[in-house]
Amino acid sequence: MDWTAFRLSLWLAAWTLAVLLPLGIVAARWLATTRSRARPWLEALTALPLVLPPTVVGFYLLVAFGARSPLGDAFARAFGAPLAFSFAGLVVASVIVNVPFAVQPLQRAFAAIPAEVREAAQCCGLSRWQAFVRIELPLAWPGVLSAAVLTFAHTLGEFGVVLMVGGSIPGETRTIAIAIYDRVQAFDTGGAGTMALLLVAVSFATVAVAFGLSDRWLARATR
Amino acid sequence: MTLDLAIRHPVPPLDVDVALPAGEIVAIVGPSGSGKTSLLRAIAGLVVPHEGRIALDGHAWLDTARGIRTPTRARPIGYVSQHYGLFPHLSAIANVAMSLMHLPAGARLERSRACLAQAHVAGLDDRLPRALSGGQQQRVAMARALAREPRLLLLDEPFSSVDRSTRKRLYVELKRLHDELRFTVLLVTHDLDEAAMLATHLCLIQRGRIVQHGRTADVLTRPRSVAAARLLDLPNLFDGVIDERSGTPTLRWGPHRLEIARAERASEPRSTAWTILPTRVLLHRVDRPSRGEHENAVACRVVDMVVLGDDVGVRLAPDGLPETRLHVKLSVHVAERNFLSPGRDVTVSLLRDAIVLLDA
Question: Chain B partners of A124 at a C-beta cutoff of 8 Å?
Fold first, then answer.
């Protein structure tokens, strides 16, 4: 059992969530309310990681993170370490790969808020921030929860992109999914089985807790 | 003290230029898609007109020429939309408190409670909107809109989704609140009876333009144009020819010559549309002479009759105009006392002052 890899996976999922959720909320709210003609294109862009093979996404990210790309170069200059094959690179890749898992439920949740309710908030004299915090975010709460759970669980299970961008450096980029793969490659079926079971248990518990919370919210809302 | 509106907007189309009296209940009446709601939304700032000026008592919220545009949240308005727009996750009292965020928390709660009591929904403070009846939701929405002490209350068909008896109670409550607080109310409705009951001022709107506005009684009884008469759903819309050459102005209507009140010096007879309210047609009594029966008497035959509660709608075919139908509204007892029935011959007077000439 590779506890380091497991801790790294949890750490990566937490970072991904911390970075993606606020960005996702802003983007999803904008997509849900904008009348911009660019919307379908931007929606397609956010859904792209869902339809592309992880190797394709991983390949482009690897190129973008490389020392010869402006992004990779700037990062290396700023932090004195390369973005590719590092934990930071893994977080960036994980955020990008998880965009559809966060944005889509959030966008649906914000779009489901009736225009009449949004307008009522304005007519009550609420500032944009007050309306967002007190009206829109609580109403979009089930969407926020779905986005968080999907992102978290998907990050724990992500394999292809992580392997492409991070390789398998113990304590740096070897996540539990990679560790399971490594164990299988080394014919350690027992070790792979234990880790796989742990991953199943954690993912199951995460989703179950989310459903429970969502049910409680629904029960309160329909009381 | 006026609400000045000059609004031009392409989609939805609005072309309005009117000064409405402040402190009154003004009804905006028109068919679906006439721009009533768009007008209200423009006043609230939810639609930004391409061009225009909106000012209450000289204080402009919007003046595109001078680059003034006060955002919705800073306008002194209360808005009750058709489905109320209550915040579904918040209790009744929290809904009201949302419009009082400028007050400290303690005062906010106290004032919210007082507003709910004023709107007759005390005791339901902790209920979520979905646990309230339609009438209760409407009252909470009204309490929320009035909590900020708005100078202008915008009501978008607020009575359309409650039952008849609740609606009547809500009418009385709106009147009472208005008498108490004297704010300006713009009430959008397609219900003329509602407008007649509540509003002192009436504004008829069609395709984004104001067709006629004025005191409710004047607009209801003296439409100025065919469009206004149609919006008022007046059934008696006829064509005639005005002839003022002989000194007394007359209206030729088929074989009939009707005296009319208005005298305009016109050298040539000209055709015009005209109307008379069904309630203003005078039926000659069978048992004794009626007052005014010598004025513009027209012999007719009863075509059919429909009883509508305490009233009877009678359709008459005037002599010499077999295809024309003159609609008359009488009380049931008048119809009975004069033995009205289909096929019977009667005489009516189209009194001079009741004939309204219309612009095309």
Answer: 73, 98-99, 101, 144, 148
